Amino acid sequence: xxxxxxxxxxxxxxxxxxxxxxxxxxxxxWQMGRGHWEEAHRLVQDDEGQEAAxxxxxxxxxxxxxxxxxxxxxxxxKPVASGDFAAERHxxxxxxxxx
Length: 99
Hints:
Blueprint: H1 6-11, H2 24-33, H3 37-44, H4 50-63, H5 66-76, H6 85-98
Helix pairs in contact: 2-3, 2-4, 2-6, 3-4, 4-5, 4-6
């Protein structure tokens, strides 16, 4: 995984391509940061890891499918989020970029 700050990651949303070397979970967050829900979902839906499950949960919360989101939060071992979507995405990215 690249050595990338949260600020640089979020600034890259303005670009045409994600930074190289992102995990599927971070690539999904990158796509969601650009408003591409379908592509974000495609990137995380087949990944069995907890990081991807966390992003998957966030995506279903954004979609409004709270039951499905709850399932993915449990798979990720994370509490069900509430509140601002962008703030949650920011918090997830901060953790994943440090991993």
